[in-house]
Structures are given as structure tokens and as C-alpha cells.
Amino acid sequence: MNKKKMIRLTALVGVATATGVVAEANQAHAATTTTTETTNQTTNASVESTQAAVDAAQSTFDTAQTSVDSAQANVTSASNNVTSASAALSSAIANKEAATSENIASATSAVSSQAVVVASASQAVSEQAGVVSAAASVQASAQAEATSASASLSSSSANVASATSALSAAEAALTSDQSTAANNLSAAESAASSASAAVSSGQAAVDNAQAAVASAQAIVDAVAEVQSSDVINMSVAYITALKNYLANPSSANAAALQEVAKGADYVKELQQKFKSDASLDVVVDPSDPTVQEALSVYAVNLINHLRNQYGLTTAFGASANANVAAIDFVKKYYDDEDWNIFGTTGSDGKGHNKNGLDAYADQLNTSIAEDAGSGLTTWVNGKATMATTTLHNLLYAVYSDIATMLFDDGGTNNWSHAQSIFEDGTILGTGGFNNVYLGVAFDKYGYAHYELYNATEGNQLGNNAYSLDVQTAAQALLTNAQASLASAKASLQRMTTNLMVAKAAVVAAQNQLAALENSSANDLVAVTKARTQLASAETSYQTALATYKQKEEALKKAGDNLAAAQASLEADQATLATAKAKLAELEETVANLTNADQLLAAAQAAYEQAVANLTTATGNLGAAQVDLAKAESQLALAEDTAEQAKVRAAIAAQVDQQLNGSTANDRQSAGQDATSLKTNGRALTATVATASATKQKQGANQGRLPQTGNDDQEASAMALVGLGMLGLTTGLYGYKKKKITE
Q: Where are the annotated coiled coils located (predicted)?
């Protein structure tokens, strides 16, 4: 319902009531038998009574509100019914206008035609249902046959599995022991073969070790003999001429040295002094460490013998580290770079690889000098030919190269090779050669390289030094070879024992296999029987598999036929449903046209009834609204009465509190004020306002109300009444009833 707000301006009524309260209060204070408590109880009872009236009025108001809400809903429903009835009436009027004989005849004819369509569709559905039933029967039969074929296939498959298992067991029984024995025999034969190969290898190692011993013995014998006999002795005249030249390499000194040396003829004479011994014709590898040791020791002993003749006390040394460095240098800077130092004729070579020497000196952080000789190559008619690499050839090459460096080194070389042999602390003017170690290596062209290194603790080129006692070194070589031979013979003995054991194991395995082969006849019969049963089971399985596939195909075809028949039936049923719906629609049209008068009358009656119902509902709503307004008025009056009772109770309490401490004059003055208030409410309001202002001024000056004197008592009484009335008027004029909302 609409929100309402009521404001009641009842100041005069309130003032009169307040005046009565003041009078009652004065009377109460005048009477000795009436106490302040009695007055308060009376006013409080009045408040409770008026609040009960408010609650009752509120309940009546709520009931009226509910009635209005219900009546409003009825009006809305009746209005909707009128709208529907009006639409139905309009449709009935239109139907009445269309209900001509021609339209009725046409609609009736359409119904007849559609009935024929429905009958035809119904017949089609019945026939197709028969087709579906027959297809379902065929499908069920095919399903039963397929199920039976599947069971038969499973049984046949189980038979095959069982026969396969039986055959596997029979074959395992037949072959298990034989296989184990055969494996044992194979393993034994393999072990015997390995042992035999080990024996052969051990025998080869023994043979090689024996050959090494023979070779070492030959080296011991030959090198000791050669070292003692193959020395180069220089004449005093040569030594003097060489010293003069090295001290002052003038042309005159060079010519004098050349004259004393006698050139190539004297070299040939020295070379012919080299002792040739058949024991030296042992084929060796020039890069073999043992051979390298023998060559470097041989070369250093030749050079040191010459240095002793020259008067030098410092000797060159030989070491394994210097030999390794020489081999590494020659491979890296001559072989790998295809650097042919002499060429094919002796005059077309590249000479020393100086860049390589510089790089290798930096790598080792030392000084290096290199001498080179024809080595394994002899010069015949200006052409170089390679000799066989026997120990004789190698020793002769070293002897010949050193001899040539001494006596056939004139021309452009300016006796540089001789200088490298005889200088002390420097070589060819280069310092840093205080501890010279010699390394010997042969390049891939057969030329010999003599690398002179200054050994230090940093480059360790003097480490693993060789003994320059040739006999001792050769004897150590022989001792090592003999130890290797003894070790090889011990290994051969162990391998021979292992071979004997392996051959015995082969014989035992062969005997075991033969025994098993003689006792396997029964197992072979069982295997043959199992194979026959497996073949029969596999044949039955293939037959069952073919039948199963045939029945599965028939089942699939029957299923497809049934699905097609069901689809056709569903289509026919949909056609029939459509035809029936159209027939019902046509029949309804005929019925409406035929009964147009009755339908119109019924629609008219329904419309009129709906209008009447709306009128009734509207009247009921009006009556409910009147009751609601009346209940609202009563609720407002009850609330006003309750508010006045509360004000009276409040004023009574204030007056009683104030009068309990005042004199009879105060009460008389209060009574006079009440009389004045009763006769002139507005004037009292103005007086109260003045008194209130005076009171505030006095309070500001004195801080409290005066307690003695007639004037003070009168002012106090007036102030009390004024405060009560000001509160009352403010409460009444400012009071607004609470909003009542739906």
C-alpha cells in the first residue's frame, strides 16, 4: 500500500495535560498521605495501559493490511480472467463468422481425405513391423550360430595350446640333457681351442724371446768388439791445424787444415779400418729403444775419444730421454713435413729444418744443435741407395758420419761439424751448451740425425742416462732378454698344462653326450606322438576358425538387415504420427465450425462472469481499504495517547523530584503557574523561554541555582515548570509518527 506519514500538532492539548500533571503533583505534595512513589506508579500504569491499546490497534491495522493485500490479488486475478475471456470471446465471434455451410463442408471433406492418409500410414507401419519381426528372428538365429561357432573355436584353440605344450614338454625332455651335454662339449672344445691357441702364442713368445736373447748376445759380442777396435785417432798435426782454424778461421788456417786432413782419401782410409764382423749382420729396427741405446752410446764414445785427443775434459752424455726427443723431433719436422735433408742426389736437398729446430728449442726451453749424415745411404755415381738395416749397417753409418765430419767437411760448411764436436760451452758460436747429451735418429729417407741438447733439471733431457761402458749396457740388454725368455717359458708351461686339462674335459663331455644319445629312444617316441596330436589339433582349429568367420559374417549381415528394417519402421511411424496430428487438427476445425453458436454463447457467458467477478473483487478491495484507513486512524490515536502518557509520567517524575526539596511557597507558585498555563498556553511558553534565559544567565554568573529567598524560589519554580513545558512542547511538535509501509 502507499506509504503514509502523519504529523499531529497537539501542543495545546499537551499543555493542558501537562498543566493537569503539575496540579496533580502539587496536590500530591500537599497531601501528607500521598507519596511521590504513588504518583509515579499511577503515571506508569497509565503508560502501560496506553501501550497495550497501541499494540491492539497495531494488530487490527496488520489484519486490515492483509485483507487489502488479498483483495488486491483477487482484483488482479479477476482482471486477468477478463482479458482471457475477452480474447476467447473474440475468437468465438470469428469462428461464428467462419461457420458457413461451405466452410463446414470443405473442412469435413478434408477430414475424410486425411483419414484415408492416416489409414494408409497405419497399414505401412503394420507391414514394416512384420518385416522387423522377421529380421529380428533371423538375427537371433545368426547370433546363436555365431555363439556356438565361437565356443567351438575356443575349444579348438585350447586343444592346440594343450598339444603345443605337450610337444614342448616332450622336446624339452628329449633335448634338455642332450643340449646340456652338447653345450658342455662345445664349452670344453672352446676352452681346449683357446688353450691350444694360448700354447701356440706362448710358444711364439718363447721363440721370440729366444731370438731376442740370441740377438742380444750377438750385440754384446759385436758391440764390445767394435767399441774396442773402432776408434778414430787424429794426428798431432791435424789437431794443431784444427785448433788454429777454430781460434782464427782465416783462409790460410783453412788451407793448412785442409792440407793436413787430406780430404776424402783419408776418410776412405779410416772407413776401411771399420771392423766387419759376421755377428753384426743381425736385422734390427733403427727405432728400437735397445738399438737406439747402442747407437747413441757408440756415437758418444767415438766423440768423447776424439775430445780427449783434442785435450778437452768435458764429455758428451747419452740418455733415453735425449733419444726419445731426437726421434720425436725427426718425425715431426722431417718425416711429417716430407723434409728431405739431402734429396736424391745429395745436392737437391732442403738442408737443415731451421724453423723446426727453433720451434723445438722453444718447446723444450733449451739449446739444440743438429748434425746430419748420409746414414744408411751410400753414394754411388751420384745416386742414393738404401742399404739393409742390419746392426752392421747402423754402426758403420755412425762411424762413417763422424769420420766424414772430421776430415771431409770443407767448402761451404767451413768445418761446422768439427766445430760442433770440439767446442766447449758453445757450438757454432751459440752459448748454453754446458751439459751436452746426444740423441740419434734416422728419418724415413734413411739419413742419420745427431741432435745435441743442453740438458737441465727443467727439461730433464739428461734423465735415464745410459752407461757409456758398452759392455755393461750390452750385458744388461742380454740379461733382460734372458729374463723375458724365462718368463715366456714359464707361461708356456702353464698354458701347456691348461691345454691338457681342457683336452681331458673334451673327452669327458664327448662320453656324456654319447651316453645320452643311446638312452633317448623313448623320448623320441613321445615327441613323435605329440607332434601328430598337435597337427590334428591345428587342423581342427583351422576348420573351426573358418566356420566362426562364416557365422560372424552372417550375424553381421542379419544385424545390418534388422537395423535397416527398424529404421524404415521408425520412418513409417513418424509419417503416421504426422498424419494423425493433422487429422486431429482438421477434426477440431470441423467441431469448432459445427458448434460455433454454442461456443460463442459459452464464451459470452464466461466473459460476463469474469466481468462480474472483477466488479465484486473491486468492491471488496474498496471495503478493505476503508477498514485499513479506519484501523490506521485508530492506531495513530492510540500512539498519540501513549506518547502523552509517557510525557505526563516524565513531567510528574521531574516535578516530584524538584518539589520534594522546595517550600510551600514554591508549591503555591507552581500551582499559580499551572493556572496561568491552563488559561494562556502561549503566554506560558513565552514566559518559560524568558525564565530559561534568566536561568542560564544566573548559572553563568553563579554556577548554580540560588537556594534561599522568595525571588529565588519563584524563579526556581518557574524555571522548573518552564523546563518541563519546553521539553513537552519540543517533544509534541517534533514528534512524527513512524512510517507504515507495506
A: 478-519, 548-648
